[in-house]
Amino acid sequence: MKRTLLIFALCVGLCGTVDAKSKKTPISENLFGIFFEDLNYAADGGLYGELIQNRSFEYSPSDVDKGRNPHNNWHYFTAWSMERDNSICTISLEGFDPVHPNNPHYLVFDALSVGPDGVGLSNDGYDGIPLKGGEKYYFTTYFNVLSGNDVPVDVMLVDGKMKDVLAKGELRLDGKGWKKYELDLTPSVASDSASLRIMFRKPSKIAIDMVSLFPSNTFRGHRNGLRADIAETIAALKPSFVRFPGGCLAHGDGLANIYNWKNTIGPVESRKSDKNIWNYHQSFGLGYFEYLQFCEDIGAKPIPVVASGVSCQNSSRTPGTGQEAIAMEDMPAYIQDVLDLIEYCNGPATSEWGSRRAEAGHPEPFNLEFIGIGNEDNITPEFEERFKMIVNAVKAKHPEIIIIGTSGPFANGFDFDKGWESARENEVGLVDEHYYCNPDWFLQNLQRYDSYSRKGPKVYLGEYASWGNTLFNAISEAAYMTSLERNGDVVEFASYAPLLARIGNTQWNPDMIYFDNKGVYPTVNYYVQKLFSENRGSTNIDGVFTGDCAPTSSCVVDGATGDIVLKMVNAQETPQNVNVNLKGLKGNWRSATLTELKGDRNDMNTRETPDKVKPESRTFEASSRFDYELPPMSLTVIRIPN
Ligand code: AHR
Q1: Which residues have C-beta within 8 Å of that of residue 373, sequence separation ≥ 6?
Q2: Rounded distance from Cα 315 to ligand 1 centre (Å)
Q3: Mutate to test the pocket of ligand 1, among 251, 406, 463 (most ligand atoms within 8 A of CB)
Q4: Contacts of 97 (CB under 8 A, 6+ apart)
Q5: For ligand 1, atom 5, which residue shows the shortest CA distance?
Q6: pLDDT tens across 253-310, in order?
Q7: For position 69, what pLDDT does the model report?
Q8: Of 32, 177, 100, 47, which is closest to residue 514 (Cα–Cα)?
């Protein structure tokens, strides 16, 4: 008898035929989400639908740290040119009596003599304005007629190469004082690279500000909305949450640059634009209202991040040592801003900040549940003191809000330990971890969360990525994500970073989704994220797999449907067998679907080869026990319906 037991035990140990019923762990329903930061032109020139660059003449040489990332000739008129054939004119930058005090500069155009085609200005957007033939575009601007009356103005969309006029409308300007003018333009044909022209046809002196051109076809049709193709690509990830607005952007390049959410709401002409820590300009046209609306549109929980009373430690070109702390006498006002943010999201439409949300068209609350305090900060005494103050204030006024602390920029080390310590001391709900590592690190650290305490704060893996966009990078992330599922009882959220990058304007690589004016190019890493998000489970079942790929495989059950989902990752360049034992689980074995992402180790999806590696699905006949040969360098997802 003893001998039989020993043989059975050995068999379990070696062959791993553990009853599938035996180990079940709940998985966070919010596990897979996204992190959006205005980095790599992710907002202006990216997700934000505005087609005019520098619409309010607020670009400034001080936006740019020339030592780091020179935008040569970056100035108040960047992206603008004069159109003055056979005419005489001047332009100047002025600031007396602007459209709004938060938007202090505007352009004054003095048309002294006007040629047959008029005289004026053009804007090329971001590397040219992409237009779709037959679609409507909304042009809006503010003019103030300083001299002249009944001034005819042609507003045109002109093809960049051919200089053909694709759409044209006329305005007549009159009267002193700022007035908003609007016009719809429908280009006859598409263009990859058009420009907007505003041509005055009579001598006059006109002040101009907030020149805007928006597609009518924005995501969900919102005015001041989002570029549809990028937003759709993000929505297809089905993220359960969106962390925003940063990243380093949230805690900013010095105290004056800490992201101030109040500057990002209200009419766009009243938003106070600012330099971006990533060396360009942020208009805040995509501001807090638009972020919250996007979250609602795609069914994702908003997770705003506010600075913990300190700026980014990389501020002022002093990497690692540039942290600045808000003076203690200014902390009450800063803390009030954080509380006001919660009121803006959730307060009744009759409250001070809830009424601002209602004015923007959303009287109902946005149902904020979480707030991040701090972003991978150096955990200095200054940080700790301010963190505690903010945490205490939020807890006192909003005990319903779950606070997410921070733990430095690396997977371990001083800030990591101190961040966790401070989170535990302050009894916050979660701790945000960040790490960017090589693919082998991910493959070697699959056990990281197995030993995490199940008491105290949970984990939000807020930023992670392996260094690259090859299939091997994506596969290493997939392998790691199976370990996140296995630890879905302690890892509450996870988001790859960064999300978006405009080709030609990147400050950080790799990224998940690249785009240009013509299209959107999801990486292989994107497809891994999508497959995990689409195939979530609410319970992880251990002991299902044996074979080499067992540590990089997961079996989850989707509580809503009862479907069993297997994810199996082969990070090697040779096929690998995996044995699957689902005994004890019920499934409609014959109607399973198998989806595969595979290729060569260095394959990448690029603008030139966007479809190199994409998931492919087919039907699959499973059974309660089967062997499967995983192709080299692959992620295989098998979904077995209930
Ligand atoms: O995701 C890019 C940057 O990486 C984030 O801004 C920052 O939090 C991290 O260092």
Answers
A1: 305, 306, 308, 338, 387, 390, 391, 394, 403, 404, 405, 406, 428
A2: 13
A3: 463
A4: none
A5: 247
A6: 999 999 999 999 999 999 999 999 999 999 999 999 999 999 999 999 999 999 999 9
A7: 61
A8: 47
What is the pLDDT, as a whole number, of residue 62? 87
Q: 177 — alpha (psi -120 to 50), left (phi > 0) or beta?
A: left
User: Is ligand 1 within 6 A of the CB of residue 248?
Assistant: yes
The candidate with the shortest Cα–Cα distance to 470, out of 523, 428, 416, 519, is: 523
Residue with tokens 């008898």: 1
Buried b (16+ CB within 10 A) or exposed e, 319-346: eeebbbbbeeeebeebbeebbbbbbbbb
Q: Is 130 in the pocket of ligand 1 (CB under 6 A)?
A: no
Residue 463 alpha carbon, nearest atom of ligand 1: 1
- Which value, to the nearest 10 degrees, does the dihedral of the CA atoms of residues 607, 611, 614, 618 take? 160
Angle at alpha carbon of residue 552, lines to 562 and 15, rounded to 5°: 85
Supply angle C-alpha 431, 434, 435, rounded to 5: 145
Give the pLDDT score at 68: 64
The 10s digit of each residue's pLDDT in 331-369 is 999 999 999 999 999 999 999 999 999 999 999 999 999
pLDDT on residue 559: 95
Residue 343 Cβ < 6 Å to ligand 1: no
| 298 CB-near residues (< 8 Å, 6+ apart) | 231, 234, 235, 238, 239, 242
Whole-number pLDDT of residue 5: 37
> How far is 200 from 429, CA to CA, in rounded Å?
59
Which one from 58, 83, 343, 376 is the annotated catalytic residue?
Answer: 376
Residue linked to tokens 């101030």: 260
Q: Whose CA is nearest to atom 8 of ligand 1?
A: 247
Question: In the Cβ-directed half-sphere of 463, how many Cα atoms lie within 13 Å?
Answer: 27
pLDDT score of 319: 87
Asked if 621 is an active-site residue, the reply is: no
Among residues 489, 499, 443, the alpha carbon closest in space to that of 466 is found at 443
Residues of the chain with pLDDT under 50: 1-18, 20-21
Least Cα distance to 523 among 504, 505, 496, 554 occurs for 496
Q: What separation in angstroms does the CA of 220 have from each of 229, 414, 577? A: 11, 45, 45
Q: In sequence order, what are the beta bridge partners of 173?
A: 151
Residue corresponding to tokens 């505007």: 106
* pLDDT at res. 7: 36
Report pTM: 0.95
Q: Whose CA is nearest to atom 7 of ligand 1?
A: 247
Q: How far apart are CA 506 and CA 65, in angstroms?
A: 15
